[in-house]
Amino acid sequence: MIADDIVLIAKKEISVVKNLKDLNMLKIKYLGKKGYITKQFMLIKNLDKNNRIYKSIICNKQKKQIKKIIIKRKKEIEIEQYNNKFLDQNIDVSLPGKYISPGSKHPITNIIYEIEEFFTNIGFKIITGPEIEDVYHNFDALNISKYHPTRTEQDTFWLDKNILLRTQTSNVQIRIMKQHKLPIKILTSGKVYRHDYDSNHTPMFHQIEGLFINKKVTFVDLKGILILFLNFFFGKKCKIRFRPSYFPFTEPSLEIDILNNNKEWIEILGAGMVHPYVLKNIGINNNKYCGFAFGLGIERLAMLRYNISDIRFFYENDIRFLKQFRSNNFI
Ligand code: DAH
């Protein structure tokens, strides 16, 4: 048989096949384990060197061509079958379509975008940081003592001795101060993790962290920016209370509470002037530079704004709850 004869014969046979089952039989006949081409390959062993090379080139070429013919026919049969299916059916083109309502962004995502927009408008740059973090960035560099209760297994999700799920977005402060040139004016948002579960806590929640380092940054700047932000977010009428506080990475430190509808003060953020130890540890000259930082819980803000009594609603995927926050921003 001449080299291309077998391809022609196969092509003829394949072209008249009408269904996938018969096509498969032909595939086995030509390319299967006991098929024509495989047998030809086996015969090559007995040939002398030159013929062996020549014959194997031919066999490979035939194999390739037959494969191609089979694939082409398979596609044709599939299209024929698909078309026949529709010819057999009576389609009522006048039937109205089904409405699929578009999804929308999660309320927490919307709030993050809103806050980011406010801070970018006053010169903050948005950056991101890792959720899986090491002890140095999450605790040590933030001046959090080795014996602080937040480091225990009851509080923190440890992945191994040195690696954990970050408990706060303050980890990003350290990364940014180490990588970026001064001055620094950044905002970062994201998920944080703690061993907690009740109407005010979920094991995963979101924080936004701001950091501003420059020459001559003052406590007044910090207060001014936070008041401006809270007036923007809640409207001018909301009652704000500044309270002295303690965080190992800021000195002095403060917390802000907001009066909710039940006349209770609810804590929403922590802030302060970056502790000189933190700057020094990173190698920033704390005689020349200083700054402020703040961190706020997004779910808390959302709960206050929308009067939501249980944080867990955000993460139970109840469509009736989520629908209430539908906006026109579909993504
Ligand atoms: N990281 C703190 C927390 O999770 C919040 C915080 C307090 C952030 C003071 C700050 C800060 O940047 O200056 O409770």
- The fraction of residues in strands falls at 15-25%
> How many strands appear in the DSSP assignment?
9
Structural category is alpha+beta
Main sheet characteristics: 7 strands, mixed
Arithmetic mean of pLDDT: 93
| Strand order in space, largest sheet | 1-4-5-9-8-7-6
Q: What is the level-2 CATH architecture name of the largest domain?
A: 2-Layer Sandwich
Residue windows where pLDDT falls under 50 for at least 5 positions: none
CATH topology type of the largest domain:
BirA Bifunctional Protein, domain 2
Report the CATH C-level class of the largest domain.
Alpha Beta
- Give the end-to-end Cα distance, rounded to a whole number of Å: 63 Å
Provide the gyration radius in Å.
Answer: 34 Å
CATH superfamily of the largest domain: Bira Bifunctional Protein, Domain 2
Please write the string of helix (H) and strand (E) elements. Answer: HHHHHEEHEHEEHEEEHEHH
Cofactors, ions, other ligands: 3,4-dihydroxyphenylalanine
